[in-house]
Write a structure and sequence with these properties.
The complex is a heterodimer.
Chain A: E1 9-12, E2 18-23, E3 36-40, E4 47-50, E5 64-69, E6 72-77, E7 86-94, E8 100-103, E9 107-111
Parallel strand pairs in A: 1-9
Antiparallel strand pairs in A: 2-6, 3-4, 3-7, 5-6, 7-8, 7-9
Chain B: E1 3-7, E2 11-12, E3 18-25, E4 34-40, E5 47-53, E6 58-60, E7 68-73, E8 78-83, E9 92-102, E10 105-111, E11 115-119
Parallel strand pairs in B: 2-11
Antiparallel strand pairs in B: 1-3, 3-8, 4-5, 4-9, 5-6, 7-8, 9-10, 9-11
The chains are: A mainly beta, B mainly beta.
Chain lengths: ~110, ~120
């Protein structure tokens, strides 16, 4: 049971827009902790996709965007491409139990 | 280009101690940042284990039992993870990562490729 809750899977056709939600609580996202997103392509290490809720590292296409509101955050992917098929994880900081980095359970994105 | 590379045994027997190292290239650990370990059991999600600052200050996931120890060797520009009394539940890909930590903003901006550790007799 992950501290941050994500849907197990989402899907979309090429060119479409999909969103992935990440729900936390008052000890993490709701407490003001930033949310970050990672993309894990099959058989590879996770890669930072969004940091500080809305920021993209250099090299990440602007098709990827993040948002945060209350105790939840979302990752949006527009103009879906076949190479976007991957697992996506949200991550934040939880102030309970002396502080900890916490991850969502991950969402498998399938491009139809 | 900063790179991280994990190394260690691919197979460990139950009850033994697992030791992994993460070598950092093109960046001096002594210059700053935290450096962390994350693991991923086969087919499952990511779990932060702990992180260390170049000074040696450590933070561990309070949800995990205290079998983990993270250390740093600035002279060799690497940091290490030790896990005692391993069981099959510790079978996972272990990643090392550079850890950005400022207040309540924690994230991992650079990752190693990961190393699969299997616990089996």
């Amino acid at each position: 049971q992950s501290v941050l809750t994500q849907p197990p899977s989402v899907s979309g056709a090429p060119g479409q827009r999909v969103t992935i939600s990440c729900t936390g609580s008052s000890s993490n996202i709701g407490a003001g902790s930033d949310v970050h997103w990672y993309q894990q392509l099959p058989g590879t290490a996770p890669k930072l996709l969004i940091y500080g809720n809305i920021n993209r590292p250099s090299g990440v296409p602007d098709r990827f965007s993040g948002s945060k509101s209350g105790t939840s955050a979302s990752l949006a992917i527009t103009g879906l491409q076949a190479e976007d098929e991957a697992d996506y994880y949200c991550q934040s900081y939880d102030s309970s139990l002396s502080g900890s980095g916490v991850f969502g359970g991950g969402t498998k994105l399938t491009v139809l | 280009q900063v790179q991280l590379r994990e190394s260690g045994p691919g197979l460990v027997k139950p009850s033994e101690t697992l030791s992994l190292t993460c070598a950092v290239s093109d960046y001096s650990i002594s210059s700053g940042y935290y450096w962390g370990w994350i693991r991923q059991p086969p087919g499952k999600g990511l779990e932060w284990i702990g992180s260390i600052y170049h000074s040696g200050s450590t933070y561990y996931n309070p949800s995990l039992k205290s079998r983990f120890t993270i250390s740093v060797d600035t002279s060799k520009n690497l940091f290490s993870l030790k896990l005692t009394s391993v069981t099959a539940a510790d079978t996972a890909v272990y990643y090392c990562a550079r850890h950005q930590a400022v207040g309540a903003t924690w994230y991992f901006d650079l990752w190693g490729r990961g190393t699969l550790v299997t616990v089996s007799s």
